[in-house]
Amino acid sequence: MNTLRLYVKSIGMLLRSHLQYPSSFIMQTLAQLVMEGGEMMVVILLVDRFDNLKHWSGGNLYFFFGLMAVSFYLTEFFGRGITGDFPSMVRTGRLDTFLVRPRGVLTQVFCGGTDPRRITCIAVGVAALIMGSILSGISWNIFKVLILIESIAMSCLLILGLFMIEAIFSIFSVKSVELVNAITYGGRSACQYPIDVYPLPLRALFTVVAPFALTMHVPASWILDKPLYGWPLWTAFVTPLSGAVVFTVMTCFFHLALRHYRSTGS
Amino acid sequence: MRGYISVFKMRLRMELQYRGAMIGGILCQMFFGIVLVALYNALYEGKPQSVPIENVATYVWLQQAFFRMLLATDPDLVDKIRSGDISYDLCRPVNMYGFYYARIMAQKLMGSLMRAIPMLAVAAFLPKGWGVSAPTSALGLLAAIPALFLGLLCICALENITMAFTMKTLDPRGMQALLNLLMMTLSGNLLPLTLFPDSWQKVIRFFPYAQLMDAPIRLYTGDFAVSDAIGIYALQGFWAVVLIALGMSMWNANKKRMIVQGG
Amino acid sequence: MSYIEVDNLKKDFIVKKKREKGKLLREKDTVNALKGVSFSVDKGELVGYIGPNGAGKSTTVKILSGILTPDSGEVQVGGLIPWKQRKVHVKNIGVVFGQRSQLWWDVPIIDSYNLLKEIYKIPQGDYEARLKELMGALQLEELMRTPLRLLSLGQRMRAELCGSLLHRPELLFLDEPTIGLDAVSKIALRDFLKWENKQYGTTVMLTTHDMEDIAALCSRVMVLGHGQKLFDGKLPDLLERFDTVRNVQVKFDTENPDIKLPEGVEYKRSEDGIILSYEPAKLPTAQLLSILQESGNISELTLQPENTDRLIAAMYKELDL
Description:
The complex is a heterotrimer.
Chain A: H1 2-18, H2 22-50, H3 58-78, H4 80-92, H5 94-99, H6 105-111, H7 119-136, H8 142-171, H9 177-191, H10 200-209, H11 212-223, H12 233-238, H13 242-259
Helix pairs in contact in A: 1-6, 2-3, 2-7, 3-4, 3-7, 3-8, 4-8, 8-9, 8-11, 8-13
Chain B: H1 2-17, H2 19-46, H3 53-65, H4 67-70, H5 75-83, H6 86-90, H7 96-123, H8 138-168, H9 172-186, H10 198-204, H11 208-212, H12 214-221, H13 229-261
Helix pairs in contact in B: 1-7, 2-3, 2-7, 3-7, 3-12, 7-8, 8-9, 8-12, 8-13
Chain C: E1 4-16, E2 28-41, E3 46-50, H1 57-64, E4 72-77, H2 86-91, E5 93-97, H3 109-120, H4 124-138, H5 153-165, E6 171-175, H6 183-200, E7 203-207, H7 211-217, E8 220-225, E9 228-233, H8 235-242, E10 246-252, E11 266-270, E12 273-278, H9 285-295, E13 298-303, H10 308-318
Parallel strand pairs in C: 3-7, 3-8, 5-6, 6-7
Antiparallel strand pairs in C: 1-2, 1-4, 8-9, 10-12, 10-13, 11-12
């Protein structure tokens, strides 16, 4: 409880410091809107030209796109400490200051960064979800709402877990950001389309290693009444939990890595 | 001119040093390429288009291979603008536009060639419709090379225009993101221009952004006939001249402003 | 048992060398940052920790504050092992890193303090009393609403100190606290540290390159070099060992005074008068002064302060650092 309070207060303070430069903040937020709008436009143009992607209709595609956008940018909004700022925390020695305070390091990393500019990206994602829902004619019920919420929450944890690979690399001062990007940003690009359009190796990658298929595609297809691989209802509830598993495993690795942290010379 | 050549050579050597980052970059770009090609293959299964899938796959691979040509900034220059040290540079008696133009050109050319060659070598072994296809004719390949060079001239000019904008605004990131997005979209990196709605293509093709990568790629794949090459070169050349002139005038305006402000 | 106990502390770092031509993998190099350092510090001591760059000062402090895990050796601070019981341990310590800030850059410093209160779970009443006290002692009242980035270097260091002492630590680590400060700020900072140490018995460990800090603050000084402890004792003892030559600068009314100098004193003319270098061990300062007085009317005389930087250089040289 106390940790949550600390998080809320920290984020509040960071928001205030972002707003110290209002014009730049607005400009960047707009840039984010155009960027995510551009991504959305690509999907619209594809639907315009091809109508369907295998057995998925245009409306279905917007729904998948929206699910990914909302999850990914929520994570960047609230988890910026992990998804973006961590390497610089190591480089500038901010991690040292975290270590000399009586709080969990990961807690402080989360408290150390937020990216409010992503709000417009989240808005685009929500718009896509609504558009997809209407075009696909989803008949909502309480189960579907719960599954949607669970799917988004677990996908956020999964994305955090994947970005923690990069964090762990930077603790060991290994510079392979681009390689990790393949799985984080690459995962976002690939998995904003339903998993079963891809050949087996890619499906395996996004089911076993970075299980976007389990946190997003299984529940989302169930919501769309086109269960993935014909799996039963309970899978839509259970498979997303893999996001929490990935997050937990990576948290353990993160703490193991911290023991070998060598700090930068002063 | 000799000065610019030595700047160019120095950047080339620097680019060669970061091998680790390069390998990571290649693998990441290849991954994006595979995902995109897989997606277009799935789309084509349902509704084949007039543009054959082989051309789309080739288009995607060439875009990924030369990604570094589109998106690569000169980190020193960005730092200088952020810290304000750029005003010292601008007040030097040398033509700084040319200086930075040469630097960015070396960086983009070398960075992308060193990534493109291994990537395309691998992509060439992928099955038909998934990898890079050979050019339709030897002439097509020959025609694409000058187009790529002219495209490079345009990219570097655009980069310098972005930088000039950056110098004006206090916070560069928003402006940079917007201009880069415009470039990524309209140059066919996010979605091949050949798959844009046909009515849009008629207009977009003449934009400066279409001259960067799209024109040389289409000459290579045969979407543009070799006989049209001269017209394409003319269009590219036109934009290169316009963009360089525009960039130079913006840099000069910045220079005047900075001298007035006293740095 | 003392408050801080360090026994045979060792830490190696593996450094990757630049790749040589023709070799596929980079070679690795082991740097022994600490090669078995032992010492103990009692509660309430003010200890100076000096040594050239790369001697292992920062490594020691980082181990003591729980940032780094050592390879071997034992450390206890107030009965706790820093890297094993990190969260309990760091409640009792405060750390000021000279060049990196613990406060938030873009917000008023009072906001940073309020957040630190949350982080350290300081009770409201205690926090208010302590904040008021520190703000008075560090003269921060008027800067409370100013964002950190707008403060001068000296103000910023005071703000950092306040932040690191809010939770009443028993032990304070200072990493080059006076670096880059002007003379007035330096003196104010030293006075505050003395006050805090006296008032609350706070143990202070100070790493610095500035011998004046040590001279003004520390009853005890430790010298570290090549990862080993080379000296541990009182500052005057250290000075005696290495401070062999001193300077006197003197100006007479007359142009060419006739000075009868004893042997072993070096004579040099400069624009500002005459500079005499002598060894206090052989020729006591008082005796030299009386010789000078007999030589003519002195218009100006400065006993150049012990040039501590030179002294340190001499020491490092003698110890082969």
